[in-house]
Amino acid sequence: MTKSTLSTATRPASGSVPAESSKSDFNVAVEKRDVLHAVDGRTGLYYSIPITKNAVNALEFRKIKSPSDHKHPAYQNEQGLRVYDPGFTNTCVSESKITYVKDGSITGMMIAGLSALQSCHLETVPAHVGENLYVGRPDRVDEQIILLLQSFAMIAAASYCHSISRPFTPPKKELSYIENFLLMTGHVATETGLPNPRHVEALERLWVVVADHEMTCSTAAFLHTASSLPDVISCFISAICAATGPLHGGAISVAYKHIKAIGTVADVPAKIERVKSGKELLYGYGHRVYRTTDPRFTYISQVLDGLTEEVSRDPLLQVALALDKAASQDEYFTSRKLFPNADLFAAFAYQAL
């Protein structure tokens, strides 16, 4: 319903409708049009409230003020007249939005989006249809994987845009998967309105590096859920939940936050000492599988080299480099075969993008 403005309150002129007029007298006295005429018997002020589609804007009543000398706190003169409608039995909804708070969890938004996606395709949920849909039917599994991948890119992009109050940009069929992801999240060049080719290449390399990494926690969670024969989306939600932990995919975010907490390069030695004394952890160092430098670290370093201009704007990079240098030269870390893993600098690559 369009908003309208309440006309300036006036006192009825001599011979016009009195405050206590009967209903029939009032109808005769006013011009017939889409307007609700009201006289506040407390003040004698006259109001005209527009009627649109057989409804009035409730906010218009806020301009009807109680007498300024009224002492009762319930009147709240500055707030105007309130409309009392318990249960909203006679209140129409002009606009409705179901959304998330801006500073809410992006992961939570993505999981909710995936749940909504599943609800739109209940024919793919074995428990809902009452039969085994996927055992011996790899073609059905492939169909669901394609649906999941194409939908998840949009869900993730929309969640990100909502969290930073950025408009979502619809994908273009002529662009690649990664190009469309950057387009949807608004990471485009001002001159072309399209993703920067360097950013496309960087993101592609980052995703390839982490795509196939054997039996990780999230992979195990996916397969564990799949063992009960649900739909693909349910399995993927399990994997996402597992991946957000600080000992898995969440380590990228945690490592960046810990580097930020260090402060400056001058504060690095103190951080190293706290780690060595067992008071703190050093995220981005050590790996449960690799007893040497994480092989992914080399490729991520190359990605950073290709984003020199963007990465150089992040003052925390120098802190990370100083931290890496100090740890690599400290016998405490080298004797325990604690070397940098992919998480330490992956955060800077994503931050640069």
TrEMBL record:
Source species, domain of life: Eukaryota
Gene3D superfamilies the UniProt entry points to: Citrate Synthase, domain 1, Cytochrome P450-Terp, domain 2
GO CC terms in record: mitochondrial matrix
SUPFAM superfamilies, per the entry: Citrate synthase
Keyword Calcium among record annotations: no
Positions of region (Disordered): 1-24
Keywords, sorted A to Z: Transferase
GO MF, one annotated term: acyltransferase activity, acyl groups converted into alkyl on transfer
Listed GO biological process terms: carbohydrate metabolic process; tricarboxylic acid cycle
Matching PROSITE patterns: CITRATE_SYNTHASE
Signal peptide: none
Pfam families assigned to the protein according to its UniProt record, in alphabetical order: Citrate_synt
Family: Belongs to the citrate synthase family.
Protein name (record): Citrate synthase
Organism: Cytospora paraplurivora
